[in-house]
Amino acid sequence: MKAQILYGIGNIKYTETPMPVPNEEQALIKVTRCGICGSDVPRVFKTGAHNMPLIPGHEMTGIVEECKARPELVGKRVGIFPLIPCTKCPQCLSGHYEMCENYNYLGSRCDGGFAEYLVAPVWNLLPIPDEISDDEAAMMEPMAVAVHAIRQVGLLDNSTSKAADSNIVVCGLGTIGLFVAMFLKDAGYRNVFCIGNKDVQRDKLLAMGYEPDHFCDVRLREPETYVLEMTNGKRADVYFECIGRSESYEQAVKCVGPLGRVMLVGNPASDMELTRQTYWQILRNQLTLKGTWNSGFSGIDGSGDDWRYVLKRLINWSMDFRPSELITHRIGLEQLQDGLDIMRRKSEEYVKIMVNKEVTP
């Protein structure tokens, strides 16, 4: 089969490689879509993967071609939870598989989706109904990450009534940040204010139904002043930090009011540092800072997790904007380096670059 193999930092090649062979607890899957994640860029060009050579890619969907453990899945489309838990550590035993202490991971620790085929544990599969497109099935992973972050601060908790007047800020409008904004909109929150720096981000928000004044372009406005203005001086009740830089962390603390909550979503781009004044602000305003990573998934026969929430919402979607509208580029598997280069150099405006089996040069 053909695959994109990462041999070392900056050394990724489109080449022929043997077909993977599933064991008794795995399925062989023909990949139909695989999105490029922002984390793939440093993995390829800066840090390398945990194990190399390796096939990257963890936002994928495909069709089951072989599966001894669950033969009824053969021919079915599936979403694929990329984290492979050990199922034995304390976190796994408590059902928090995303925090497994000894996990494996498709696309960073073992072969992933930038290939014609991959193998994945049956436990990690989620059958996809006909109502959901291949594009959206491949985007369930970043959507579930966004939902997980929102749930961590109780905004999708059915036991908590929605506070229509809650002021929510989403800073950093890459794929995850835009999905956070999308699911907050879908859940009925009205006072959601988004901070970004690209025209394409503004355009996607407007397509979701956001008003123009709910987007702060940092090229034109200072975010803290904007938040004060939009909240009548109250500042934010909840702030999603989706960038992962010290300055955006500082900004988050400055933009939330007393008893506010900061949800740290962005992967750190470097060491994180806080000034003494910012630390005092956390103490004096009695702020809550929470971290989030990955998404909750309870296995092929599970229920009530982030992936099932996304699945249910996609089936019952009511917004005019579809999640697949965040795809700005479609490329073939052999063109992966072109997509990675766009993201690394930021040579074009993009949101999601999708590797599509059906695209040819």
CATH class category of the largest domain: Alpha Beta
CATH topology (level 3) name of the largest domain: Quinone Oxidoreductase, Chain A, domain 1
Total tally of structural domains: 2
Question: What is the N-to-C order of secondary-structure elements (H for helix, E for strand)?
Answer: EEEHEEEHEEEHHEHEHEHEHEHEHEHE
Please, what is the CATH homologous superfamily of the largest domain? Answer: Medium-chain alcohol dehydrogenases, catalytic domain
Low-confidence stretches: none
Q: What is the number of strand segments?
A: 17
Average pLDDT confidence is 95
Q: What's the N-to-C terminus distance?
A: 18 Å
In CATH, the architecture of the largest domain is Alpha-Beta Complex
Structural class: alpha/beta
Largest sheet: 7 strands, mixed
Helix content: 25-40%
Description of the molecule:
With 361 residues, this protein is α/β, with parallel strands linked by helices. The chain has two domains: 2-138 and 320-356, Medium-chain alcohol dehydrogenases, catalytic domain (Quinone Oxidoreductase, Chain A, domain 1), CATH 3.90.180.10; 148-291, NAD(P)-binding Rossmann-like Domain (Rossmann fold, 3-Layer(aba) Sandwich). The chain has helices at residues 40-47, 90-93, 134-138, 140-152, 175-186, 199-208, 223-230, 246-255, 276-284, 306-315, 336-345; strands spanning 2-8, 11-16, 26-35, 59-66, 77-80, 83-84, 104-105, 117-121, 125-127, 168-171, 192-196, 215-217, 236-241, 256-264, 288-291, 327-331, 352-356. The strands form four sheets. Strands 3, 4, 5, 8, 9, 16 and 17 form a seven-stranded mixed β-sheet that branches. The longest helix is centred in the middle third of the chain and has 13 residues, at 140-152. The two termini are 18 Å apart.
